[in-house]
Amino acid sequence: MKKMNKMGNLSNLLSRLSSFFSNRKGLLIFVAIILIITNFIIGLLFNNWFSQSDLLLHLGIIIGLFGVMIAWAL
After folding, report:
1. Is the pTM of this model over 0.85?
2. Domain residues of the chain, as ranges?
């Protein structure tokens, strides 16, 4: 019975996310662009482990690809 409840929660979550992103198809792509630009600026201004790891660049690419897939599916 508990497993059935978890699947219902997951279904509700996916339904809410789908309705949210159907009206805002470019939101994730915009967030990805902001992350990539922020990574570029941090790389120019600072020289620490955060800028050397390019964490925001990698997150931006992943979020951007995910945003393109969601926009294409919806």
Report:
1. no
2. 24-74
